[in-house]
Amino acid sequence: MSHSKLTVVDFFCGAGGFSEGFRQQGFDIALGVDSWQSAIDTFNHNFGKDFQSKNMLEFEHSIEQIENLPDSDIILGSPPCVSFSTSNKSGKADKTLGIKLTECFLRIVAVKKHKPNSILKAWFMENVKNSKKYLQPSYSFIDLNLSEWAEKNGFDSNAVAITLDGNSSVINSADYGSLQSRSRLITGEIIKYGKFLIPAPTHKCPSGKASPNVAGLQLLPIHRTLGEFISSFPSPFEIESSEQIKDPSYDYLIDKNVISDHFYDTGIHACEWKSSKYLKLNHPYMGKMSFPENLNKPSRTVTATNIGSSREALIYKSEIKRTGNGEYRVPTVREAAVLMGFPLTYQFVGSEGVKRKLVGNAVCPSVSSALAKEVRKAYGYATFDKSHIIVDPNLKGVNNLNTFSVKEFGAPPVRKKESKFRRHPFKKGNMTVALSNYDIIGKEEEFGVWKSTVFYGTGEGFGSFTYEENFYKHLEPIIMNEFSDGDKFIKIINNGFSERIAGKNLLQEMYEKKLSVGRFLEPTLLIEELARVIEGFDAYDELFIQKEQKIFEKPIVPKKQLYSLYAINKIVTIANNS
């Protein structure tokens, strides 16, 4: 069997994760194409190239530009997934550009596949799972604006040029040894067989459900875990040392003092990790997530941003003892890159924000390496059990983020002017009682007037009702008569808690600055404090059964939701009238 070099052209190449997996299997990288300069700089740095940035839309109408591209054995592409993602504008983002860019890629594939004496052996495209519903099952030459080219080369312009239907599979990187669970749609074709072949997994989900049903599945090792990685990798707070470290994903050692982008403090402000914790554990209509991360599973998907206050943020407990600011941290750029499957020697060019985007948008090399093996096997080329890795890092021209120091926390990042606020103390009885500074139901445009609203159910379309100011006065006698601790609860709210409620303008200002002023609590802390108070009055999950009074749409609700409505309506009344 031959070890002959096969060539790769990588479109939307980004940081080069797709190409890296193929390089690890002995392929030569002939070209990387991307419109983002930082991506091209990173690609060039790691592959020793001098490519220029280029917009893929230049291939939309120019056959000449496509024909001038080098012929290659493999064509790779990962069109930008942002518009297709369900997380972008709740899946309602404009898909037009995403579709156009994808069709530009398929246009290139069609020309290179069907041209006379084509050498193309396979093509692969990576995107988010949701992209499939916006693409056609197949594309004719005319669909790809190739009518004239097809007729010139002896094809019917209505003939199918590229088939996607049946040539796609959702692949989880954890099934191929990655330290993260990252499910992406891989579409492609091994030309020899005229179809896509799913690579055999190297690892399996403990339940056996996540991996394809293949022979020998029961013999595979289970998914690697986040805990396995964190426990064996140096802490970001370690001092400089010439100690040698094993790459978590590959079989080689590297001096710890040449590991870049890792030994710096990624601790986040208390207001940020508390926001993330709330959204993970108590989101208005989405399920619970672990806080901090679950160490017994692969990492959740690495994202392209570093917003420590978001629901999707990866949050770790800090290795150094701090309370509040810095108590939790986000992964370092190097940790994120390792979770993606990049070798420790792989470098990223740019600022920290740029590096995180490069890493989070990449294709996992473990997945692309598995695809590369599949091609080699199909054409009778030997595969490599040991990946080809560049073991000497090139740090020249790299903005190394290492500081080997602990940062001091100043003022937290502020929110935008007139930021919307919505929070509830807890979900209970499939309902929530929310405090907001706008009309959540959407009936009014008025902003800055605080409101108390009850929501039934946890998704769009469920019943809801917003209560008028001073409604809490109707609840006071009910609470005191129905519950033995009602009188005590009312006293605590009216004597101590109420004094911490600011007027509406100051409440908004504190929310935007993420800071409390004097005795007043900013609204996120106000809701946190309320949750603590109410939890102390509901040790036995008591219920409130409505009689003649009509307070809630449900006849029976948790007692703590009655208490929540009382306190939140009182917040609204005080704030709007101060």
What does this structure look like?
This protein is an alpha+beta fold and 578 residues long. Among the domains are: 236 residues, Rossmann fold (3-Layer(aba) Sandwich); 155 residues, no CATH class. 28% of the residues lie in helices and 14% in strands. It has 15 helices and 18 strands. The protein has a six-stranded mixed β-sheet with strand order 2-1-3-4-8-7. Strands 13-14-15-16 form a four-stranded antiparallel β-sheet. The protein has a two-stranded antiparallel sheet with strand order 5-6. Helix 1 crosses helix 10, helix 11 packs antiparallel against helix 15 and helix 14 packs antiparallel against helix 15.
Biggest sheet architecture: 6 strands, mixed
Helix content: 25-40%
Report the β-strand fraction as a percent range.
Answer: 5-15%
Overall average pLDDT: 91
- Read across the widest sheet, the strand sequence of neighbours is 2-1-3-4-8-7
Number of E-type strands? 18
CATH class of the domain at 7-225 and 362-378: Alpha Beta
Structural class of the helices, strands and pairings? alpha+beta
Cα-atom Rg, whole angstroms? Answer: 28 Å
CATH architecture name of the domain at 7-225 and 362-378: 3-Layer(aba) Sandwich
- What shape does the CA trace take? elongated
Number of helices: 15
Per CATH, what is the topology of the domain at 7-225 and 362-378? Rossmann fold
Distance between the termini: 82 Å
CATH superfamily of the domain at 7-225 and 362-378: Vaccinia Virus protein VP39
